[in-house]
Amino acid sequence: MDTNTVPKPNKVVLQRLKGTQDVLPLSVADVGQPALSIHLWQQLEQLLHQYFQAANYQEIRTPSLEYTELFARGVGEATDIVTKEMFTFERSDRSLTLRPEGTAGVVRAFVENGLSRQPKPVKLYYCGPMFRYERPQEGRQRQFHQVGLELLGLDTPAADAESILMAAGLFRALGLPQEAITLRINNVGLPEDRALFRDALKALLFAQLPQLCDTCQARYEKNPLRMLDCKVPSCQAIYRQDTVSDFLRQYPWPDSSRVPFEQLLVLLNEMGVSYVHDPYLVRGLDYYTRTVFEFTTDRLGAQNAVCGGGRYNQLVETLGGPPTPSVGWAIGVERLLRLMTPLPPARLDVFVCSQDIPAAFRVAEHLRAAGLRVEVDLSERALGKQLAQASKRQARWALIRGESEQQADEWQLKHLDRGTQQTVASLPDPQVFFAS
Ligand code: HAM
């Protein structure tokens, strides 16, 4: 190639997109933020699989990219997520979207792959990246991760209760401080009963409509329940009036919307799960029927929801499947990590110092197979320098092979914390390490 045509090094510093994060092989202390340390992610992921599988939930992985229509129909045309927050683009005349949440994709996969014909309930979990074009702030990213659970094919208070117990149990298993987490729960009724509820709420607020913010005025027509979620203080003052609060607390839902929810609360009481029945809890996704809940915390500032979920009895049908009442939730991983206490990262066991590279590779493979964490010095430098490297890498032991050890086909095993040394065979018994 003509050297004149070699492109000049690009001086522009490339940066990650706003609202996205790198997860780095550094400790939490080094990066200063739990979500940026891969050690904490791995701690979480290792526990997750065991935790869900112990309750016979199976993992499902669906694509990050789906047809936009899935979310428009699934999450709801009028929701903030669909109207404002999706990363959507065109390819070959089709509109595609990076998934803003996991449930719609799981339900699509459930229908498309015939999982709907499996014995019910079908119990699934997932973990993966989600994308929402929101204003980034502490605890709110544009690419974030969710761990989710979906229990498909049962409409019983026990199914709701299990899903909630699974979330609470996961927080416990991860060692989260129990007093820092509150379960809020509410009943938003079945869709056929909600229309009357919505009309009654609108009638109650009609006289105060001119005092409400623009967003609430728009929601009044499109999605009145979401008005209750407004953070504007003057709107809050209106919604917190006794007339509204009493209406919400005492609304006479018909039996089909009310009884199973009350039975769920009884079950939670019996299981000793504390909760707050919060009549103002409404969710930002349209698919919920009856039970909705959130786990919030006082430790994360404004973005205080760690987990959100609820029952969705019609979503599977909406997406072309058979009637399949379901319930589920998703936890925000980055928020969860901020509540976890990191374990110290695993330490390197053995650092192999040798200029006899084949022997070094052989002993490393032998010891790794026995479960030890082993690294080989690849520098081919003098042994003294390799040994210094062993200390820098904070290994417990160094295996050293100088000329005499090479001739005798053995190793010097040095305990780096104690400074003691012994001779071992070319493929030493791993018990020597485990015992010391
Ligand atoms: P969601 O409430 O929209 O529900 O999200 C669940 C959790 O994801 C939130 O509680 C929060 O922890 C986290 N999260 C949401 N947006 C962000 C963000 N921009 N940055 C960081 N974390 C975020 C759902 O997504 C439903 N699919 C849950 C569900 C499953 N319902 C039934 N099944």
Task: Describe the 3D structure.
It is a single chain. By secondary structure, the chain is an alpha+beta fold. The protein contains 17 helices and 16 strands. The strands form three sheets. Strands 1-5-6-11-10-9-7-8 form an eight-stranded mixed β-sheet. The chain has a five-stranded mixed β-sheet with strand order 13-12-14-15-16, sandwiched between helices. Strands 2-4-3 form a three-stranded antiparallel β-sheet. β15 and β16 form a beta hairpin. The model has no long low-confidence stretch (mean pLDDT 95). Histidyl-adenosine monophosphate binds next to β6, β10, β11 and α13.
Choose one word for the global shape. Answer: elongated
* DSSP summary: helix tally: 17
**Which structural class do you get from the secondary structure elements?**
alpha+beta
DSSP strand (E) fraction? 15-25%
- Which cofactors or ions or other ligands sit in this model? histidyl-adenosine monophosphate
The whole-number mean of residue pLDDT values reads 95
The number of distinct β-strands equals 16
Distance between the termini: 58 Å
* Unreliable sequence segments: none
Q: Give helix % range.
A: 25-40%
**Alpha-carbon Rg, integer:** 28 Å
List keywords for this structure.
436 residues; elongated; 21% strand; single chain; alpha+beta; binds histidyl-adenosine monophosphate; 17 helices; 5-stranded mixed sheet; 8-stranded mixed sheet; 16 strands
